């Protein structure tokens, strides 16, 4: 225990120093390329965005196939209100939950693959 305020230690911090980028086997690391916003770094990020977009479009297409025909189905059976609610409540809910779960898992896997690609080895 310090006996007086003068005996206490003071930690002084400053701004982080800039480090030089190191070359590994004649090329920059992918993470450095992304941080410096070079053309190659832009390509890495764009590939992740394209992969995520492809996943989202696939989910949107399946969602359209699930929900799109429902108005036609409901128009074909105008007097079956209980059946309509059963289809909406039970027949559609489970596939939507499974689709959402698949989307989240796929998006996380895409991001893990991207991180594995750009991490230092």
Can you lay out the helices and strands and say which pair or pack?
Blueprint: H1 30-35, H2 39-67, H3 70-76, H4 81-91, H5 93-118
Largest sheet: none
Strand content: under 5%
Helix and strand element order = HHHHH
Shape type: elongated
Task: Measure the end-to-end span.
Answer: 45 Å
Give the overall pLDDT as a whole number: 82
Q: Which ranges are low-confidence, i.e. pLDDT below 50, for 5 or more consecutive residues?
A: none
Provide a count of the helices. Answer: 5
Number of strands: 0
Keywords:
121 residues; mainly alpha; 5 helices; 65% helix; elongated
Architecture overview:
The protein has five helices and no strands. The chain is mainly α and 121 residues long. Helix 2 runs antiparallel to helix 5. The protein starts with 29 loop residues before the first helix and ends with a helix.
